Amino acid sequence: MSGSGSERLLEIIGKWMEKYLDGDTQTGVALSMVLGGEVAQYWNGLANREKGTTVDLDTLFVIASVQKVFTSTLCAVRIVNGKMQLPDPVTKYLPPDVGKDGRAINEVTLGALTTMTAGMPRNATKEPASNLYNDLPPSPELQKWWTDFVPQWPIGTKEFYSNVGVVTLGFATAQAGGAGYTGLLANDITGPLEMPSTVVDVSGFPADRIAQGYNKAGNRVADRGVGLNSTANDLIRFVQANLFMLSAPDTLTQAMRLAQTPLFQSSDNQAIAMNWYVTRLDDGSRLIGKDGGNAGFSAWIGFIPEQQAGIALLSNGHPAGISLTKAGKQILLEATGISADDALLETSDQGALGADIDD
Length: 359
Known about the structure:
By secondary structure, this protein is an alpha+beta fold. The chain is built from eleven helices and 13 strands.
């Protein structure tokens, strides 16, 4: 284990990372957190068990569904710029044939996609995101799925975690932005926030910087999947920008503020904003976060604006301890002195489907 920061924060981090790892000495973890003007960092374990390479704060991990808040922030930028509106039907930004003849997809709004209330299933066609993250048009299979779409319940009435819903939002955002997804990402977020290691393609990076994912049985996951990779050093910059609303262009600052605004109340103390999950804590402050898990990796980012506290956690395995999401929440709460019901901490940022489920 290695770390930097105050003794108090490192003690809190070490305690909850021990509960996460539960004696696992191989799973790699990288963590960076902020509390006001203080920064604390932690890294431990192996990036690649077969090669024996170790994790550090510049190790590249798959961030899985944490990417969803990047997609929604890109959408929010278009809204701030007047190119999109949350009540717009998504078909306004999809290929023309998709919305013909009064099809149900015409009733799906951008707002419903950002709040997981579009009546869409978790997944649809195989690898619907591949074309999006490779800056290609939507596949014929996905376009046919859109034209045949029938909502599982009335749109806007029920939250259900949907990967294909956010991919649909991504294609609409790229169309409205007049560029490919990765181009918008670089122009609007990773460029201004100086996040050079937040990328789809890791082939240009040294092999010892690239983490390998492992499943619950400890076996290598051969397919890295598609989507964003990032590092603890990069992700904490995104967290800090969302938390402090500083060091970002005004348009991005407005977009991040919009993306954090609750739009659908899913329970007494939890709402969903634009793919951010917002939990009201006992002291009235807000815990805003997003988790993800895929290809043997787990990730969580979260922050409490009222306490100026934020964290980014990345892992390349599935230890037997508590979930990475719960560990991250516990670190933030203990560091800020806020108490919360344990059931609240078990709540995933994937609705009722549970934390750290591969997606």
